Amino acid sequence: MVLAPGLVSTGMVGWVNNWYNTCLPNETARGTLRALGFTNYTHGSFIHMLWAIQIGWTPEWIRNFQRKAEGSVPTGTYNALFHI
Predict the structure, then answer these.
(1) Cα-atom radius of gyration of the chain, to the nearest Å?
(2) Considering the entire predicted model, what is its pTM?
């Protein structure tokens, strides 16, 4: 089984805790173990599964605008149509 979690609130990310896109490590582990044997792929938590569905339906150019607004794309490498 492949585990592809979203943002998990740990000391590595400064204990970020936003209810809408983070989960605790035990939530990810519990969700992963619950899915074991039933699926080939999981995000671990319900929140991350919902985010994956939303991201999958959002066009790349819109996601790139969000990345730029969040500062995820280094200055000078941003292209509105393609994530570089």
Answers:
(1) 15
(2) 0.57
